[in-house]
Amino acid sequence: xxxxxxxxxxxxxxxxxxxxxxxxxxxxxxxxxxxxxxxxxxxxxxxxxxxxxxxxxxxxxxxxxxxxxxxxxxxxxxxxxxxxxxxxxxxxxxxxxxxxxxxxxxxxxxxxxxxxxxxxxxxxxxxxxxxxxxxxxxxxxxxxxxxxxxxxxxxxxxxxxxxxxxxxxxxxxxxxxxxxxxxxxxxxxxxxxxxxxxxxxxxxxxxxxxxxxxxxxxxxxxxxxxxxxxxxxxxxxxxxxxxxxxxxxxxxxxxxxxxxxxxxxxxxxxxxxxxxxxxxxxxxxxx
Length: 287
Description:
Layout: H1 2-14, H2 21-32, E1 37-41, H3 47-57, E2 62-66, H4 73-76, E3 78-80, H5 82-93, E4 109-111, H6 113-119, E5 125-129, H7 136-141, H8 143-148, E6 150-153, E7 157-160, E8 166-171, H9 179-183, E9 186-190, H10 195-205, H11 211-226, H12 236-248, H13 256-262, H14 270-277, H15 280-286
Parallel strand pairs: 1-8, 1-9, 2-5, 5-8
Antiparallel strand pairs: 3-4, 6-7
Helix pairs in contact: 1-2, 1-3, 10-11, 10-12, 11-15
């Protein structure tokens, strides 16, 4: 078993996703048991990247549904091709022979991400991204898919999965999710990476980045995330942006001057930047 988990970790590393043992173990068990995986954590800790890396590691297509307020089944599951139906009705009225009972058949059904994922002949990874941004009603609508791996279309009937998708749901925890949804999922909480892991991420994602500079960026970002002067904590993506900006400038060592002119790549709020630049502890965090 240990060997299998190490092989999965190596595959994720090949996709430049630095995974710890807890993540690899949870991911493996969820796939093995065909359980949806709910990943929670602050914005920017790498939740979406888990699904992307897993799809590549397992050799599956990634099907993504981005959630937002007001999302409904016509955007997430299916929609009828109304123009084609109208044309069929017109042809039928003109004696074209189109039977009205066929208007809600396969020919007129438009797949959206959820339906596509369960009608795929090959198993896919279905990413339901930021489920907490969708309404509670949509969350309830998902329960049939999560528990039965099927969906019901009123005019068409029940569609069962041709192959089992691996479903990954992410949440920034902007609102509580229902217990019904949580019960149906395996669960993983992602923290911001510690300094050694952040260094590994930076050097893996940015070939050519000097490890000493990566360590300075990682220490500085770790300080920013715990600082009371920062309202919007820098994500891993912003850590990468900052390191990229320093590389573009040809900076070999992070100092107060290079930090001052590039800090906007790590912090995206002017008040945060102003307060951090007045904070002597920030400079000491990486020098």
